[in-house]
């Protein structure tokens, strides 16, 4: 039995902590401005965007805490440390986003037919400031999207920017025409922006928690590459999954000819397997069990 390893346990989110912290500060500043602006102006769209920003602030805070925990060293029973916490934070974030969208829709429906008075000047000023802050946050995270937590924060900021544009347009319509239902329409648009993002984040996070194979790892191609290694005659119990964003792992039982094992070539086969998987599929951590051809009689009756 043997194992070939490629050790690189740094996560994709670890290098983004400073940027996430900066985005969190921007988000909290915009949130405070939008809450005050919504109370002063009576705008549901601004209040909806404030609720969205509150959820985003919590989500970014969760992501920041998760990626900080993920950097803690593995010890005891947590052999991969706290790296999976990032994915749990992404799930919580997705659920929060969906909840905000539902609340906004309910309030928007309640206002249909009885729209309140809106102060468009306040709406325009606060929405413009929010848009600028969102664009600054997007610029900070644009090249750091390898992590699900960071990707979730980036999606939130993108949705916030689009939401700010919708609020700006609603404020302009109210200012130019006096048609206050435009504010309710903008609130519904904000909710419509949130739901698809929540679904995408939840789907990707659940794929990791259910240990689905990474989307960019084709197990049929992996099997074919393994079988091309000199001395390998079979592969079974092939599994690939993701610990956290940027950390795919793979394990397999690899059958090697008796001649190769007798000649002491097991180490060469392991090196070739690790190099093959790392170079072609960018799998950070590979574990292989090397077996002789005669070992098949001792295996469990079911293999994949």
Secondary-structure topology with pairs:
Elements: H1 17-41, H2 44-70, H3 85-111, H4 120-141, H5 148-177, H6 181-209, H7 219-228, E1 232-244, E2 247-256, H8 258-262, H9 266-281, E3 285-292
Parallel strand pairs: 2-3
Antiparallel strand pairs: 1-2
Helix pairs in contact: 1-2, 1-4, 2-3, 2-5, 2-6, 3-6, 4-5, 5-6
Structure description:
By secondary structure, the protein is mainly α. Helix content is 63%, strand content 10%. It is built from nine helices and three strands, in the order αααααααββααβ. It has a three-stranded mixed sheet. Strand 1 and strand 2 form a beta hairpin. The N terminus is likely disordered. Its main location: membrane. Keywords: Ion transport, Membrane, Transmembrane, Transmembrane helix, Transport. It comes from Geodermatophilus saharensis. This is Cobalt-zinc-cadmium efflux system protein.
Q: What's the β-strand tally?
A: 3
In CATH terms, what is the fold-level topology of the largest domain?
A: Alpha-lytic protease prodomain-like
Low-pLDDT segments, ≥5 res: 1-13
Overall body shape: elongated
Amount of helix: 55-70%
How large is the count of helical segments? 9
Named at the architecture level, the CATH assignment of the largest domain is Up-down Bundle
The largest beta-sheet arranges its strands as: 1-2-3
Distance between the termini: 19 Å
Measured by DSSP, the beta-strand proportion falls in: 5-15%
Which structural class should the secondary elements be placed in? mainly alpha
- The averaged pLDDT comes out at 78
The major beta sheet can be summarized as: 3 strands, mixed
CATH superfamily of the largest domain: Cation efflux protein transmembrane domain
Integer count of domains: 2
Order of helices and strands: HHHHHHHEEHHE
Q: In CATH, what is the class of the largest domain? A: Mainly Alpha
């Amino acid at each position: 039995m043997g194992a070939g390893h490629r050790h690189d346990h740094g996560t994709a989110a670890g290098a983004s902590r400073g940027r996430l912290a900066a985005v969190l500060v921007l988000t909290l500043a915009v949130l405070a401005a939008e809450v005050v602006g919504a109370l002063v102006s009576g705008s549901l769209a601004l209040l909806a965007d404030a609720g969205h920003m509150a959820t985003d602030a919590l989500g970014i805070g969760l992501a920041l805490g998760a990626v900080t925990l993920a950097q803690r060293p593995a010890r005891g029973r947590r052999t991969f440390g706290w790296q999976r916490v990032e994915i749990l934070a992404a799930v919580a974030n997705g659920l929060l986003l969906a909840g905000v969208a539902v609340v906004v829709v309910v309030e928007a429906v309640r206002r249909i037919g009885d729209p309140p008075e809106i102060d468009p000047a306040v709406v325009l000023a606060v929405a413009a400031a929010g848009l600028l802050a969102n664009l600054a946050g997007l610029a900070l995270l644009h090249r750091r999207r390898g992590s699900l937590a960071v990707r979730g924060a980036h999606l939130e900021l993108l949705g916030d920017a689009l939401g700010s544009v919708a609020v700006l347009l609603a404020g302009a319509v109210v200012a130019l025409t006096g048609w206050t239902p435009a504010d309710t329409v903008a609130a519904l648009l904000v909710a419509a922006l949130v739901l698809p993002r929540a679904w995408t984040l939840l789907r990707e996070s659940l794929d990791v928690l259910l240990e689905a194979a990474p989307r960019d790892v084709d197990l049929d191609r992996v099997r074919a590459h393994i079988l091309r290694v000199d001395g390998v005659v079979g592969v079974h119990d092939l599994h690939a999954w993701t610990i956290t964003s940027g950390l795919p792992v793979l394990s397999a039982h690899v059958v090697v000819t008796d001649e190769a094992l007798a000649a002491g070539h097991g180490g060469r086969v392991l090196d070739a397997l690790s190099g093959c998987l790392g170079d072609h599929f960018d799998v950070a951590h590979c574990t292989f069990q090397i077996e002789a051809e005669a070992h098949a009689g001792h295996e469990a009756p079911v293999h994949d």
